[in-house]
């Protein structure tokens, strides 16, 4: 069964990737498919394109990706999946000696409360938190007790290898005055596209899902997890030149969550 392709407006990670390619001195050729053809929307070979299943879930929380130099070029990068699902996803490349003024503008925007997401064992105790500031989130009921003046949470994720992420954290002084959110995941990473140094090292997409859960964005978190599972299935089957089962449990779970989001949108009151 072949699914139709779907066209989406390029998101923040896609635009960052295009900018990175424009700076390249030689063409970037990804492996896979005849002549390396890949879908521009999901980076998979055309026979395994995922675009028609892409879910978009509006959230109060935002995601700010600070990406290492080569991350946007890797088809296995999961920051791309976050930008697929969460509309308020921003993406910026990291450099040791310069910082994008647009990133500084986002961090200074009064609508956001930024949180740098990083393991607590590498952070001074006075900066580390495990819950969001000034907000009580009921993640089981997917409801939030948030005053009208509360800032929206903005989760800053360092999208890089573990060694690169530590370097970004240490050498980005513009992040020093923000609280560091230390997550305590109970699950072992399900990410199978790259080898982690430790089982408790989660991929960027898994970290984003934990952050969304913490902010009470349960549907978005579950959808992002399901989308990662389906992307992984497509990626590995494409790599092994195997056909897809579009009706298996992974695909059905993603469709069910997408339907829940559609029903939620229908219940929202119309704008006056």
Condensed summary:
By secondary structure, the protein is α/β, with parallel strands linked by helices. The chain contains 7 helices and 8 strands. A hairpin with a 4-residue loop joins strand 5 and strand 6.
What does this structure look like?
The protein contains seven helices and eight strands. The protein is α/β, with parallel strands linked by helices and 272 residues long. It is globular, with a radius of gyration of 19 Å. The termini are far apart.
Descriptive keywords:
8 strands, 7 helices, alpha/beta, single chain, six-stranded parallel sheet, two-stranded antiparallel ribbon
The helix tally amounts to 7
Q: Kindly provide the radius of gyration, computed on alpha-carbon positions and rounded to a whole number of angstroms.
A: 19 Å
User: What is the average per-residue confidence, as pLDDT, rounded to a whole number?
Assistant: 84
Instruction: Work out the number of β strands.
Output: 8
Low-confidence stretches: 136-149
The string of secondary-structure elements, in order, is HEHEHEEEEEHEHHH
Largest beta sheet: strand ordering: 2-1-7-3-8-4
Q: What structural category characterises the helix and strand content?
A: alpha/beta
Task: Count structural domains.
Answer: 1
Strand content: 5-15%
């Amino acid at each position: 069964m072949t699914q139709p392709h779907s066209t989406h407006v390029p998101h923040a990670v896609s635009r960052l990737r295009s900018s990175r390619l424009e700076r390249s001195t030689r063409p970037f050729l990804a492996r896979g498919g005849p002549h390396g053809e890949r879908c521009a929307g999901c980076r998979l070979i055309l026979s395994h394109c995922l675009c028609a299943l892409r879910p978009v879930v509006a959230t109060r929380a935002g995601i700010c990706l600070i990406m290492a130099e080569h991350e946007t070029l890797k088809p296995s990068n999961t920051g791309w999946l976050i930008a697929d699902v969460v509309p308020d996803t921003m993406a910026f490349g990291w450099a040791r000696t310069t910082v994008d003024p647009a990133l500084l503008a986002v961090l200074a925007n009064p609508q956001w409360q930024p949180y740098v997401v990083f393991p607590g064992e590498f952070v001074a105790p006075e900066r580390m938190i495990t819950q969001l500031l000034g907000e009580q989130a009921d993640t089981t009921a997917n409801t939030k007790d948030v005053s009208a003046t509360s800032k929206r949470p903005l989760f800053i994720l360092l999208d890089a290898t573990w060694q690169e992420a530590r370097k970004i954290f240490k050498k980005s002084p513009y992040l020093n005055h923000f609280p560091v959110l230390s997550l305590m995941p109970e699950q072992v990473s399900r990410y199978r596209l790259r080898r982690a140094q430790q089982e408790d090292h989660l991929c960027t997409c898994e970290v984003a899902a934990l952050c969304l859960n913490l902010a009470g964005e349960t549907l978005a978190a579950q959808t992002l997890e399901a989308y990662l599972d389906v992307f992984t299935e497509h990626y590995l089957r494409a790599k092994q030149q195997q056909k897809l089962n579009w009706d298996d449990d992974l695909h059905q779970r993603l469709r069910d969550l997408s339907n829940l989001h559609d029903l939620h949108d229908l219940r929202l009151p119309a704008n006056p």
